[in-house]
Amino acid sequence: MRKPQTKQCAECTFTKPLTHFYGDKTQKDGKMRRCKECQRNYDAQRAGTLRRKARLATKDANRNHEGTLSFYDVIWTLAETECMYCGEEVEEAKRTLEHVTPGNDFGSIGMCCTSCNSRKHNTPFIVFAVRHLTDYQTVRIVDRLALRRAQSFEETFNELYDDMKRYFTEKHERALEEARQAEKAGGDDA
Ligand SMILES: [Zn+2]
Ligand SMILES: [Zn+2]
């Protein structure tokens, strides 16, 4: 039996010759679901969304942190498909730029879903990992960060540990300062 030489495009619904479809090994008939024309439009649209998001995220990040985060660092990060924390596949609209550590460079950011992002907020990574991640997830994330930073696992882990120490030291100092202020205010009243 001869193989059918035409196919219906899932987008525009026109039936077109097979040569009007790009190859896709994951499909049964070896061709993409959309015709070439529709596929190109679809890809351009997705790239546009990604670029817009990357531009916003770069602007936002540079306002709030010291560092050297480039537009391409962001676009590369937002092109990842799995949330770095929960591991779920994240649709493009729900991908957010996550600052794993307070720095603002390629080695301190990652992509996570909106719900993981709001759950982590500014919790130091190690604290978040102890509360919400399995050992396997934690090791995988540290490994990936190490790769981005061109460091060893130990170096990256030590830096994450220092971030946690810094966070709690600052918190402690703030609390002490508040206590001093309160005491001073109380003393003035007397
Ligand atoms: Zn089409
Ligand atoms: Zn997530």
UniProtKB/TrEMBL annotation:
It comes from the Bacteria. InterPro entries: HNH_nuc. CDD domains: HNHc (cd00085). This is HNH endonuclease. It comes from Salimicrobium flavidum. The lineage of its organism: Bacteria, Bacillati, Bacillota, Bacilli, Bacillales.
